[in-house]
Amino acid sequence: MPDRIDIRARAAALRASFEAAGAQLVETDVLQPAEVLLDLYGEDIRGRAYVTSDALRGEQMLRPDFTVPVVQMHMAHGAEPARYTYAGQVFRRQEDDASRPNEYTQVGYEVFDRENPVEADAEVFAIIRDALGNQPLRAACGDIGLLLAAVEGLQTSERRKAALRRHIWRPRRFRALLDRYAGRTPVPAARAALLAAEDPFAVAGPDIGLRSRREVEARIAALREDAATDPLSENEVALIDAILGVRENLPNALEQLRDIAVDMPAISASVERLARRMKALSKRGIDVDALDFEASYGRTSMEYYDGFVFGFHAASRPDLPPVATGGRYDALCRVLGQGRDIPAVGGVIRPDLLIELEAGQ
Hints:
alpha+beta, BirA Bifunctional Protein, domain 2
């Protein structure tokens, strides 16, 4: 584990490079209100957050990342466009691996700019890449927006599409729903019996739990509506599978996705946005032929990423987490903007991992 003094020094140098690129230095509180933030993080982060209770302020949490509090700050009183940088500690429990730190440093670069989101994606990726220096890292990217667009284009009910959108970041649950909606898995016996009953409450016991009878009735009605919905076509499921299976260098992935878009026009706009992003990356000196694209990339990360996602990995150290990650989070700005929204994208670097890799060379 690198010395804390060395980590702070490297973090300061990275932050200074982001300031030189035009970012404004910002600070956020280490202790954050938990009520809002826990709903915005994915299951992984929610399960690893340090949460405590304060008699006056309610539930509080140690900062698990910087993006959400920075967005809150910007949506409250930030100017447009804006670029921010920060450096500090984040806190996450490591229940499965005691060797990984539960407190570490992040240094970030965030861009809020509605003029040209594709150019902003390329800017953040290139600035993060340059800040990483000459480390032999494998770069990978994806686009959550492709899957969101594909789900939106399915010929099924809004309720089913909402469930699939909600579970895009939970690959196993997403697959289970997809198979169920396609009729590939049988209806559980208990649910079938419930739906077949003329009056489900006739044989029910006393009311228990926190749900009211009205809420239970609404849930049963929703299950009946879903049971009456036609299954997804095998062709639509095959097209979703084809998207999820795309794993190539960026130019080849783009061609594969264009072929899929012929049969699934709903993703056409996202595919062309990917093409414009590839050009923007190339203009900034990124070797797009060496950039891996994985359609499933980022699906187990924080749920607020809803577009371009990327990461830099040490191929020689598969035991390490990504050295740097980032992505687009437009929907997060809408949620926290209270009626305002602005496209935004950002990335973070782990200086401790950089130092560790350098020491191993």
